[in-house]
Amino acid sequence: MAFHDQTHKNGTVSKKPKLLPSPITAAEIQSEFSHHDPTVARLNNGAFGCCPSSVLGAQREWQLKFLRQPDHFYFNYLKKGILHSRTIIKELVNANHVDEISIVDNASTATAIVLQQATWAFHEGRFNKGDAVVMLHYAYGSVKKAIEAYVTRAGGRVIEVHLPFPITSEDDIIREFRHALERVKREDTNNKVRLAVIDHVTSMPSVVIPVKKLVDICREESVDQVFVDAAHAIGCIPRVDMQEIGADFYTSNLHKWFFCPSSVAFIYARKSVNSVDLHHPVVSHEYGKGLAIESAWIGNRDYSAQLVVPTVMEFVNRFEGGIEGIKKRNHDCVIEMGEMLVEAWGTHLGTPHHMSASMVMVGLPSCLGIMNDSDAMNLRTYLREFFKVEVPIYFRDGVGEVGGVTGYARISYQVYNKVKDYYKFRDAINKLVSEGFTCADLSTSTPATVV
Question: The Aminotransferase class V domain covers which part of the protein (predicted)?
Fold first, then answer.
């Protein structure tokens, strides 16, 4: 244990210094994630995240505290605990005020909150039929469905900004986004773009989006509001700063890259926007008291995942550099492993290094014959079942393949990963190639949702 002297206001030093945890060791990291299946090369942290044993233990304590005396827990612990978590998140993302931070189940819930507000604006006549929502073509599938469910049904129209892939620079994205907004203004003078939905990190293919520059373009083109879907951001992207980014709404999961259990995310709503119309989709007793309060009680359920954020901070601060140090090391390692794989397969990465975070798109050998989404899903299943490698596969739809590559693997790197995990993946693909395997050898099936 390391010692940290406690200095009082009068300048004296306490005789009982506070003990700080020692820096975490490789053995302790392995122990924290010993509940992972050791036989699987787990290269898909980006989908479901991970949670260390110490945090799971703290979650269990919160669950037992509730079960011992639910009334006492509700009146004396729950609200204070969630406020504590919100305060930590507020500092983590440099929000102006804790009231700008609400805790919800996941980024999908946050998306529903923002789109629900837009739906009411259409129904109440504040938006006109034909007013638009702009989103990236690579927006997450459930976000596209949510826009369809809320905005399209209310009379709005959807404009998709098509992006190239592979990506060669941020300019590719900035140029296409600006052209899309300019085209809307030029072709439709009667309607407005009411909302832009921008990813911070697209899921599939995984690309770090220059969100601040796109937000600036939205302001220049008089887009009413900007919502950043940053499901992967916290614990993955450096410098997540609400004041710097300047969006009206921003959401990120805390289970993907910030070591929380499932069912915890946050939504930031800038105080200068009209947040009175923001409400949790589940209406409970706290309705009308502000989104943060509404979200803190949506009926009797397990709130333990939302209460362990302080414990997660203790965990990440055991690593050199805290969460920023973790992010940098994960980025450096995933790039190194990605470069190792493309060298072995004679392919290429899908983005420049700086446009990857803790995930990178790795081109797969063209001889595998990935010709559609079903092939990609079947190959993913085959790798899981026969090689114990878990990795998402992306089919690159459209023309202009680079080097004939039509399939990419999205590899993640988190603190529990080891180099042998990526060697296992490399060797599995090499074996398939050497045996003349193609995806046509696999029976067709309906693609599942990619996460």
Answer: 79-273
